[in-house]
Amino acid sequence: MADLAIRMPAAATRTRRVRRAGRLQITVGLVLVVPIVLVAVFAPLLAPHDPNAIDLAHRLAPPAWVGTGTSDHVLGTDHLGRDVLSRVIYGARISLIVGGLAVLGAGLIGVTIGLLAGYFRGVFDAIVTMIAEIQQSFPFLALAIVVVAAIGRGVGNIVAVLIVGGWILFARVVRGEAMSIAQRQFVDGARALGAGHTRILLRHILPNVRSSIIVITTFNFAWFIIAEASLSFLGLGVDPNTPSWGQMLSDSRNYLALAWWFPAFPGIALVALVLGANMLGDGLQDRWDPYLK
């Protein structure tokens, strides 16, 4: 009894520490993500210049606080004289649109398939597992390059490719948890009381995999943003006339020694968004973890 009395306060202390760390992660994540979202929403109001306006007379101008920099281009200009700040602001739109649409589509498909496969099992589960294993045997980036090269560039095509590559993680994790939860007594009790399959899936199994879905969502959101930037860096992303952080990093490769600001600011924005999304997901997992309640 004495050992139990000692262990219970210790467990409560660990729970409080995890909760406190989770709140800190959520706060930091929101501090990083929310400003970028607001900047993307109000891009036309915040951007000081047309992001595609070319001004060769002021190409590779440094930021306002460096040497010959001026307040007209606070973060400097690129190799074509386009305003870096304006392009970073508009580039946030592409990253958020692609990441948001891709994670929404992949989540809906993957969670649905995972729930059905884990709950009903049988032939459907075997088919889903086989498809997932076959698809995972191909390197995603190589497959995405081939597909995008075949169907063309554009936001819609990039989102479709990311959905095809991202549903598997949702499906595999949700399938495993649904398979375990479906064998618990409260599910048997709901079934004995006359609950149908749909009610059991939506009211009893889905809420219990919520924290895992949230973590996968934030992880995939960050991964989709990096994937879009990687494809744009390779020249297979969005249209060249559309400002994109990956495209900006690609354009800056030949000017690293001459204009450090050219790759620095889109790179910082990309790191901040990905880091914020991951920290937000980790914090929400700690906050909603049923084992800490």
What's the layout of helices and strands?
Blueprint lengths: L1 H40 L1 H4 L37 H37 L1 H15 L3 H12 L3 H27 L3 H8 L4 H9 L4 H24 L11 H7 L9 H28 L5
CATH fold name:
MetI-like fold
Average pLDDT for all residues? 85
The CATH superfamily is known as MetI-like
The level of helicity is over 70%
Shape-level CATH architecture: Orthogonal Bundle
Compute the number of structural domains. Answer: 1
Distance between the termini: 23 Å
Structural class: mainly alpha
Largest sheet geometry = none
- Globally, the shape reads elongated
How many strand units? 0
CATH class: Mainly Alpha
* Strand content range: under 5%
Oligomer state equals single chain
The sequence of SSEs as H and E is HHHHHHHHHHH
Rg of Cα set: 23 Å
* Continuous helix count: 11
Regions with pLDDT < 50 over 5+ consecutive residues? none
Protein model, in words:
The chain is mainly alpha-helical. The chain has one domain (2-292): MetI-like (MetI-like fold). Helix content is 72%, strand content 0%. Helix 3 (84-120) runs parallel beside helix 6 and helix 7 packs antiparallel against helix 8. The chain is elongated, with a radius of gyration of 23 Å. The model has no long low-confidence stretch (mean pLDDT 85).
